[in-house]
Design goal:
Helix content is 53%, strand content 17%. It has 103 residues and is an alpha+beta fold. The protein has one domain: Winged helix-like DNA-binding domain superfamily/Winged helix DNA-binding domain (Arc Repressor Mutant, subunit A), CATH 1.10.10. The strands form two sheets. Strands 3-5-4 form a three-stranded antiparallel sheet. A two-stranded antiparallel sheet has the order 1-2. A hairpin with a 2-residue loop joins strand 1 (2-4) and strand 2 (7-9). The radius of gyration is 15 Å and the shape is globular. The two termini are 21 Å apart. 17% of the residues are buried.
Length: 103
């Protein structure tokens, strides 16, 4: 738990990989800044580059993401077939663990 201003909030860093897989499954393809922008909309705070890019690298190293270099230095990410499978497994686990939390 962390306290932000007067609010107490759960630290969601452990879910970052799942959220990135989810965004790429839902929106595909996206570059790092687009992923950070979308996470900021959904979570209410923007992950720093020092948080988001290591998470992306870890997912890429695990074989879950494919990167494609665009014009300039922009790199766009999409899910690989292995990443798609990993997302579906993670979504089932997430649903099983958290189903009923909001009841």
């Amino acid at each position: 738990m962390a306290i932000y201003g007067d609010e107490e909030s759960c630290d969601m860093r452990g879910m970052l990989g799942f959220l990135i897989l989810f965004l790429l499954y839902e929106k595909k393809p996206m570059h790092g800044q687009e992923i950070a922008d979308e996470l900021a909309k959904r979570r209410g705070d923007r992950p720093s580059p020092g948080t988001i890019y290591p998470a992306i690298k870890g997912l890429k190293d695990a074989g879950y993401l494919h990167e494609e270099k665009k014009i300039g230095k922009t790199i766009s990410y999409t899910l690989t077939p292995r990443g798609m499978k990993a997302f579906h497994v993670a979504r089932r686990r997430f649903t099983k663990i958290f189903f009923g939390v909001l009841d």
